[in-house]
Amino acid sequence: MELEILIFSTLIAILLPVLALGYLSTQLTAIFDSACNNQAATRFWLKCIQILAITGSLILVIGIAINFNATNWLQIVRTTLVWTSAGIFISVAIVANIIWGTVVKPAVNAMQQQALVPKGGEK
Question: What's the rounded mean pLDDT across residues 23-27?
Fold first, then answer.
């Protein structure tokens, strides 16, 4: 039974981050394309995010969720989903924070500075 639990939990911890990133891939590709101006760099960063999300979920599921005494499959599924979701959340939060600090915040600051300059170009 322990082998089945490990295999099931590992598959869930890999599948859910891939699905979540598939959902975000169009938006992430557009952001990275505009920030990097290079398709190779965009692909690199998307792969890094995939690795971060999958390994984060795997670490939580294998390191924490497997070390409990489950009495039935429902408890196993619930715990696996909780820790996998936590891994995805942490990974997406890290990426969103980085994108906010390097792409969005400078753009917002530039627009605010532009709004402060009168039409004649003088301050």
Answer: 90
